[in-house]
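[job 4417] fold queue: 2 targets
>>> target A
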Amino acid sequence: MSDKALEKAVVRLKNGDDRAFDHIYDKTYKVVFFVAFRILGNKHAAEDVVQDTYLKAVSNISAYDSDNFVAWITTIARNNALNEYNRTKRQTATDFSAEDGYREGNFSMPDEDSFGLISLAKNLLDETDYKIVIMCSVAGYKRREAAKALDMPISTVSYRLKQSLELLARHVKGGSK
């Protein structure tokens, strides 16, 4: 789905066509998830934030008035994830909260193998480079689409994507930064 198709789906959703949500969700889910995952470091917490993000986005869809839905929804996801991170950070430790994976330094993920490279990218890359890698390599965005969503020139996105992937490849092969 191109940016135009995504924006058309958003307009349809604003006009009451609930079926448009499926198209919007399919196009944006991976980016929204990995924005939350980068902040929380926990798959289950990120999934909860994703759900809250889409609920908030749909309930406030009338407030959306730009032409960059991906930037709008990832901002909501980022804010929700930061709120969740701060909320769980303030909680008093209990026997089961220490095991639930929300505490800093205790991110136990049951399927860590499937997130190994994502975790590596999260740890090695800055937030913008991480978003570029997730959008282009995981979510399937074209560099042009990622550039528009991030409000950057395509050449910058291409360069940063190439540099980030090379850094990740060197690190996987046992090299250093």
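>>> target B
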Amino acid sequence: MWQYEKKLQYPINIKNPNPKYAQIIISQYGGPDGELGASMRYLTQRFGQPFNEVKGILTDVGTEELAHLEMVCAMVYQLTKNLTPEEIKKSGFDKYFVDHTASVYPVAAAGLPWRAEYIQSKGDVLADLHEDLAAEQKARVTYDNLIRLIDDPDILDPLKFLRQREIVHYQRFGEALRLTTDKLNQKNFYAFNPNFDGKPCKN
């Protein structure tokens, strides 16, 4: 059960619609390293974690990713609001518009719709945390790329905020990995951990 404030985590106030920018920013909604995949990955993985501290970090970060998903959707919405047919055609937004009008739909910048393959949940704490560390770095690089391509300060400001949060999440998952390795049997944790299975370890 979540309690939440009915406002964006960070304000989005874009004055100039720009469907070209919308078509690349939308990748952080439905792309392979976007916020939809991140939120689903962490909020799914949390159920298989053996340690409450790690479960808590996954819940915290997964919840914040939902807030970031909302921010990205708000950006895409504001960038495509009240477009004329001429603006739609000139910008190349017409292919998206035919299928979705100006609704926000989870696709990558390349046009591929969101896929469940973008998330991973192995049920192994080390495999999942390494997946999460990599995911945060890939998301950070995507924000880097968007920042390189965009020159509107109304868009750059929230993008820089989102990029910074990816760095913080990476640090949180580093903390989770340290907590985990401290609790595992350091002789065995890469292959087998008797703390999970309750079986004696054969050397």
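[job 4417] complete. Note on B: The chain has nine helices and no strands.
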